[in-house]
Design a protein that fits this description.
By secondary structure, the protein is of the alpha/beta class. The protein is built from 12 helices and 11 strands. The two termini are about 25 Å apart.
C-alpha cells in the first residue's frame, strides 16, 4: 500500500510528515510486491494545484491493496498558469507524451475552474478529450472528479450539465443505491460527501445512458456512478478527496472576493459543515467585513485559526474505502505490462463479470 517517492515532488515529504507511508526508490526496489502506476491529470488552478495533489495522493496512499503506488502527475499546457506554477510543473510534473510512452494502470482526472458555462469552449477541451480517448484504449480504469465527470458526460454521452440557480455547496448526506457492486464493497451504507459547484448532471441524464448509479444524495443527486461496463470509467460528482478545511478555504476565498468588490453579495455558509460556535465567529467577521467594505478600510485577518480545529470530517474514511476498492480491482484486472490495460482472460466490455 505504500506510495513511492520516485521524484522530488514536495507533496511526498508533506504526506510523509502526516504519517502516510512513503518509500524511497531504493527501498521499493527491495520489496517483492507489484507496482501500480497511476496518472493524475491535475487541472486545478495554481492556488489549488499542490493541495489537490496531496488529497488524491493521500487517498491512494491510505488504500488497502498490497502494492507500490507510483503516481505520475501531469497537466494540460492549455490551462493558464502563472510563471511560478509553470516552473513548479516543469520541475515536478511529467508530460503527457512521456506518460503515453510508459503507460498507466489507472488514471485520475481532477476538476478545474472554468470561465463561462460552456465546457466545449474551454481552451483545454480538445486536449482533455485526447487524454480520455487515449485512456479508454490504454488504461484499465479512469476516475473522473467533478468537472471531469461533466466533460465525459458531454463529449461521450451527449449529456450536458445544467447550471443551477444557487451553488451546490457544502456536505451532503448520501446513501448506496446498488449494494452489489464491488467498488462499494464493505463501505458505510450512509455517509457524507462534500460538494462545490454551480452545475449538475441529473440522475435522469445518467440513467438515460445506462450508466450504473451506485451512490446518490438524499435529494437524488448522483455522486458515484460507472460506465455501462461497470468499471472502465468511474464518475465522482462530489469531492470526497477534500481535506477537512477545504470548504472553509473556499468560503474564505469568496469572502475576500466580496470585500474586494468582485461579487455583490456576501457568501452563505456551506451547508451542513459548520457548527453554531463557528458560525457565530464567522458572522462577527461578516459584520466587520461589511463595515470595512463600506468605509474602504483594510480588513482584519480571516479567523481561520479559530474555526478550522472544530470542523468535523464525516467523509474521508468512506472515500479511502472506495478508492481502496478501486485500487484492489485494478490490481486484479490490469496486465503486468502497464501498456496493456487488461490481462488476457479479461473481457474489456465486462471486466467485472457483472
Amino acid at each position: 500500500m505504500p506510495l513511492v517517492a520516485h521524484n522530488q515532488l514536495p507533496s511526498f515529504e508533506r504526506l510523509r510528515n502526516e504519517g502516510i507511508k512513503v518509500l524511497t526508490p531504493v527501498t521499493a526496489q527491495h520489496q517483492d510486491i507489484r507496482e501500480l502506476h497511476i496518472g493524475l491529470l491535475n487541472m486545478m488552478p495554481d492556488a489549488a494545484l499542490s493541495a489537490t495533489e496531496r488529497q488524491f495522493f493521500r487517498l491512494i496512499g491510505e488504500s488497502n491493496p498490497i502494492a507500490q503506488f507510483y503516481i505520475h502527475p501531469f497537466t494540460l499546457d492549455e490551462i493558464p498558469r502563472s510563471d511560478k506554477a509553470r516552473d513548479y510543473i516543469e520541475q515536478y510534473y511529467e508530460s503527457f507524451a512521456d506518460i503515453k510512452a510508459m503507460g498507466l494502470d489507472a488514471l485520475i482526472v481532477t476538476g478545474a475552474n472554468v470561465s463561462g458555462s460552456e465546457l466545449s469552449k474551454q481552451p483545454f477541451w480538445e486536449p482533455l478529450i485526447e487524454v480520455f480517448d487515449w485512456a479508454w484504449d490504454n488504461v484499465t480504469s479512469t476516475l473522473c472528479s467533478c468537472l471531469a465527470t461533466h466533460a465525459v458526460m458531454e463529449f461521450r454521452y451527449q449529456q450536458k450539465r445544467e447550471l443551477q440557480k444557487e451553488k451546490i455547496w457544502g456536505v451532503q448526506a448520501h446513501h448506496i443505491v446498488d449494494k452489489t457492486h464491488p467498488l462499494i464493497n464493505d463501505i458505510n451504507t450512509r455517509f457524507d460527501v462534500p460538494h462545490s459547484r454551480w452545475n449538475i448532471v441529473s440522475r435522469q441524464q445518467f440513467a438515460k445512458q445506462n450508466l450504473n448509479i451506485l451512490v446518490e444524495s438524499d435529494s437524488g443527486m448522483v455522486h458515484l456512478a460507472t460506465s455501462p461496463d461497470g468499471f472502465r470509467t468511474i464518475f465522482f460528482q462530489g469531492h470526497p478527496e477534500y481535506d477537512t478545511i477545504s470548504l472553509l478555504k473556499e468560503y474564505k476565498r469568496e469572502v475576500m472576493r466580496f470585500h474586494h468588490g468582485k461579487i455583490e453579495h456576501y457568501p452563505p455558509f456551506p451547508d451542513h459543515y459548520l457548527g453554531v460556535f463557528e458560525k457565530a465567529i464567522l458572522n462577527e467577521y461578516r459584520f466587520r467585513c461589511e463595515i470595512c467594505r463600506q468605509k474602504g478600510e483594510q480588513l482584519l485577518d480571516f479567523p481561520e485559526i479559530l474555526v478550522n480545529g472544530n470542523i468535523d470530517n464525516t467523509w474521508h474514511d468512506t472515500a479511502v474505502e472506495v478508492v481502496g476498492n478501486w485500487m484492489g480491482l485494478i490490481y486484479q484486472l490490469t496486465h503486468k505490462d502497464r501498456k496493456i490495460p487488461f490481462m488476457d482472460d479479461i473481457n474489456p466490455d465486462n471486466p467485472l463479470n457483472l
